[in-house]
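User: Structure tokens for this complex, please. No commentary.
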Amino acid sequence: MSSKEMIGASTTPIILTILLAGEDYGYEIIKKVRQYSSGNLDWSEPMLYPVLHRLERNGQIKSQWRILDNGRKRKYYSITSEGRTLLAEKKEEWEKMIEMLAKMWNLKLDWS
Amino acid sequence: MKFHLEESIKNWRAQLRKHSGFEDADIDELEDHFRIKIANKVRDGLSPDKAYEQVLQEDYKDLDTIAKNYLHSRSNTFLNRGLFQNYLKVGLRSFARTKTYFAMNLFGLIVGLTSVFYIIFYIHYELNYDSFHENSDQIYRVNTLMERASGSINYPIIPPAVGPASKEAFAEIEKTARVRYAYDVLMQHENQSFYEEKVFFAEPTFLEMFSFHWKAGRPANALSEINTIVLTNAMSTKYFGNENPLGKIITYNNEIDLKVVGVIEDVPEHSHFSFDFLISFETFKPGPGALEPMTSWRWLGFLTYVQLVPEADPEVIEKKILDLFEEHRNPSNTSLAIQLQPLSKIYLTSGNLSNPQGGLFKVNDIDNLISLGVIAVLIILISFFNYFNITSALMRMRSKEIGIRKVFGSSRRKVFAQMGSETLIIVGLAVISSWLAIILMNQSNMFKFLSDGISISILVSIGIVILFTLLSGILFGSAFSSYSAMALLKNKFISAPRNRLSAGSLILLLQFSISASLIMVSLIVISQLNFFSKKDLGYNENGVLLAKFGSEEMNTKRQAFVDAMLKLPEVKAVSFGPSLDGSTSASPLRLKEWPEEQVIQTSYFGVDYQLQDVLDLEIKEGRFFSLDYARDSVESILINERLAEMLGVDNPIGQVVQFERAYKIIGVFKNFHYKSLHHEIGPMALQMWLGQHRNILIKYQTENIGQTLQDMDATWKEVFGNTGFPFDYRFLDEQIQSMYHKEKEFASLLKVFTGLAIFLSLLGLFGLSSINIQQRIKQIGIRRILGAELPQIAKVVSINYLLTSILGILIAIPFAYYFMNRWLEGYAYSIDLDLTFPVFTFFIVVLVTTVTLAYQVYRVMIVNPSTILRDE
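Assistant:
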């Protein structure tokens, strides 16, 4: 649905927000995005993982391999304090942007 | 066929691995994701194979794009950590794929770098002779330069009066130290006695000027008293074992008791001047037969070192000393000059010095070092050429990888970085290994180096690593960015450069030229050395033994000894005469009727009646000294052909010459080499000397030499047993060969490094030709199926390489010829540069090239062509 620019700008805050709730892995993140967007956003692996890796390199999230019951391993990501700071900044930007657009378009916002 | 999920996932992983965008952890993570998706579909009722197919089709169809995404996310910074890790990984994978060539590259680099480091250490060592003296910048040796008809001769010695008088007269001279060589010394302590060769009389200032390290004793007054001696640590152990040597007595030539006043550490190897004993200068007394007193301005017999004040100009002092010298010495006909030779340059610039103490002062020729330096550069070049040739041939095989990188927008910069990091790994490994090799060699005493040479080598190592990395990055990077991505993917690169003169074959040509030049150079150097050892010296040096003959006491038993010796059946003749170690004395000589200032500086030996029999000297005219002529011992002289020529008289026999006193010429002998072959034969005379001799020459039968030596030793003990002088002998032919010690060292270095350079070139040829054949293996297979026989295949495989090698030789020959011609000019007697050298070089290179290529042809021929062609 969304344009490339939109996806590019929203990916980081979306991932960080999901991780704010607790550590998670790639498949679940994509699933959650699909649920929150009611199916409008369908991320693919080659889109998600490079972003996760970049955030990790930048120190905003960290990862850990966990061994599952079946003996396989899975990589879990969690947010760092740097990530929280970044998310706070992003959140402020988005709020201002949404508020402005809402005003311009006479939308009603319900900040729950 | 039954579907295996695990097997399929493994294959899928292998597919991913082919892409350079993924790291192992990425693939693990994706696999987890992949499995969850398959598991979900299986749960929804699909069979595993269907589920697998669906997920693959829906989400993992276009691996290129996925890989590109991964790559792209890493590429925001040039050479960031992740990226470098990726380069490293790709590099290691490519090494693993091409193990043989990787090993070849690495081994070639290690051999090349080890040689280069060795040469650096060697040159550094040679350049730093005498640098360990604190005042080395201010110390000079005073030499006498003498102009002669035959050219100028330099003596590192001056008369005894010059040093002290100069110090007195010129404030710029801070210190002077006179040193006198003590000939044929017998040292004795309690009941052990040894002949010692490195004994000098030295003024106390000698030990102040030079920084030899004290082990025991008082440097301030050591050697200031008469009859005192300083010895090296090795000598202290030799004579006194573990006892404290200070205050102990060593007897000199059975005559003088010397008190040990100090022990110094052994003289370092890199000192031009080497000694074991220093006796106080006061102790030296000119012998009873000496012509001059210690205040002489004529007696060229003393090494003299001066230490100048820091700001003094040596050229000015040279002039001042010369003026002072000219004032005092008798007006004379030989023109003289004084040279202050800087201490640090003595070792490498004394080639033209007459070295009066034979091999006692070490010398080397700076040209040898330059040659080795050139060889080092050539070896590095060959190593790099090999690396470049093999790697670029391999790169053609990797063109797909690079093509994909290009498709993904990888820039030239990144290819540069990839190739640079691969080179960095391999050169880094090679540098580390070479260092280990050098350290091992150093520890096993195969060679020694100065610790301050390490910093230079480290700098060179870093330089080589950076240079190789940058060069290969640039070369390969630009080569590949010049091809379009599509061409690379279609492997166009492989076929593109084949029919024109490629960089690879140019480089190969250069390598062949270098190797061929080095082979020719080595052949010439080795022949010149063989020439030295085989050259007819004008006398027979074989079957002659030289023994030291020391004291006056022994001289009284001289005839008894000769008689006893001649009773031995193996002994043919005994003579008391010259040591033939290259040292001579010289004096001015003229025909009696010539004016006084017209003289010929003439070398001479004092000999006895038997020398002719011992050395088989050939008399051209007249006769040798004979007991039948009573006056031979006082007024007869023999001259060599050269001197006869210079005198310019029709019949020299019977002519009277003035040579210290008047002599009548009784014979002319054939020129013989009384010095090393570096020197031309000059005017020379033999006169009788029945006084004290230092050497006995014994002509013996060469069969059963062991028994002969035993018999001689027994005879010696019988006659001289109570004198304490041991039977200390050398073989004349061996002593003569030892005059060419430096040449031999240089030649053996040259042989080793030439061998290595050839080896490296062949390694390059081998690598290049096998890659080339591998790439053309199908073509060759088709030819064989179409009926081509061995000769055609051999031609296809090797003709280009063979032609390149021949062309390389043709280029090399004139260069080698030119330089070696110049090198040989430095020798008074040398071989002729004839056609044998280029012809031999040609055969050697063509032979080894053919053998290398034959092996490649063999490898191709043993494979069944159908297997090659089926392999698609």
